[in-house]
Request: fold
Amino acid sequence: VDLTQATLFEIREAVQSRKTSAVEVTEHFLARVKNLNPKLNAFITVNEKAIDAAKAVDAKIASGAKVGPLAGVPVAVKDLLCTEGLRTTAGSKILSEFIPPYSATVVQRLESSGAVVIGKTNLDEFAMGSSNETSAFGACLNPWNPEYVPGGSSGGSASALAARLAPAAIGTDTGGSIRQPSSFCGVYGIKPTYGRVSRYGIVAYASSLDQAGPMAQNTRDCALLLETMSGHCGFDATTSQEEVPAWSSLLNDDLKGMTIGLPKEYFSEKIDPDTSAVVQNAIEIVKKRGAKIVEVSLPMAKHAVPIYYLIATSEASSNLARYDGVRFGHRADYSKRQAKNIEEFYSITRGEGFGTEVKRRIMLGTYALSSGYYDAYYQKACQVRRLLRDDFTRAFQSCDVLLNPVTISPAFKLGSRVKDVLEMYLNDIFTTSTNLAGLPGMSVPGGFSSQGLPIGVQLTANHFAEQKIFNVALAIENALPKTDKKPQVI
Amino acid sequence: MISKENVQQVSHLARLRLTEDELQLLAEQLSSVLDHFQEIVKVDTKGVVPLVTASDIAMYLREDKVERVSDTEKLMQNAPEKSGHLFKVPPVV
Reply:
């Protein structure tokens, strides 16, 4: 088995039939991390105990015991998900030494399915960013061209996966943080319906929007990973009790009877010609596979960025209040002096611990929630959010899946948008509405730009209709010609 | 337009110490971002109930039983400073 290119199904088959061992697979990817990570900065922490976890999987197989569906599969986990005993930083100085006392439900479920956490991936600080440049641990680079960003905030997961430092990765998505880096790095990534996956043990950014999801090399791997992560969790009251379908075994790339909606507002934006061509090609593919194409309208979608940033930063300003230097995390040095008062102690600790983008968002959110502005900003945004969701509800009365670009253009150059805050925020124009409406959304590789950068296509379905997304994704995957293009770093 | 003084007030509410440069920069950046965000003011939202959770999630009852989820030592291990099972803070009086 060529482990570097193998799918999850191939890896688990090889491990279970003992053609290879979980230890061998883990060693293979750890060696790749050692060689290539210095070029990419995709990992913040490598799991020193990964081999032990792999040994345990091998021992279980040797004993003849039943193993889970991910037995022996190494997984790279975004450093926003708590891993018991393994440093979890959220890409921030304020948590740079934090050792979680427990694992996130997602991590627990992956591990009990036999997956091996090989390390924690780089991200924008507290998942606040679209380029992975706000990380306190340095920018992560795009393996297709290291002059470009991998996207964000799950940039490390996308970069690691594209460079095959791991065969699977976990990200989180609050406003596009799985889909946009998946598009920029040419991998498959899905943000499930809000409530599908437990948020327990995931460092909170904006609780009404945050969802974790898988990133993988193909549709079927993505579906398998999501199956193991999903389902009700007693520690997160917003998880749904809906049954989790066996998506990976129900896949069907025949789209007869399915209707694909093209949101006209998304197609009237100024879209880069290469991105347009990739999306048009995807439309032709789904047509050929039997789908009907209709135009739909989402009149409120043009307001998605303001609604998103007002709501997300408001929730963040509240969620990040817990970093006060008392119970965990960075604390300002008071060894030689006395604090004037407790507020000063908190303020200095937080001023030292948070980076620029996090400070900006805490400030924006505090402002939007402050007396005199609450009605005009936060409350207004929540009202328009309902109108936006109603637009989607109407659209899904006439179609099954929406198809449109993930972003206006492919990956941008490192440093090119750092100065212009508004331009960076507007980058999220096609992704934020999915989170605001609580819908599942996926980025599927659709082709390349003239400069050789990957471009994804975004698929969105109604609540809990992930199967429809996976089916359309598979149709596109199967119809695209096999490419021998490989990231520069490989 | 948001003044440097406004930013200063908000930074107090957020318990976030900012440098002079940060205050100045944030006054400019927050002004430009919020200026752009004004577009939602024009949307007619009369009578619209604010939406907080976007997907329908049913509330449920769980059994009321005590469970041990972690132990004190583990939960205390990240404390910057502690005394036994207590978190220590610098003297403030």
Notes: Chain A touches chain B through 78 residues (CB under 8 Å). The CA atoms of residues 269 and 480 of chain A lie 26 Å apart. Chain A has 16 helices and eleven strands. The radius of gyration of chain A is 22 Å.
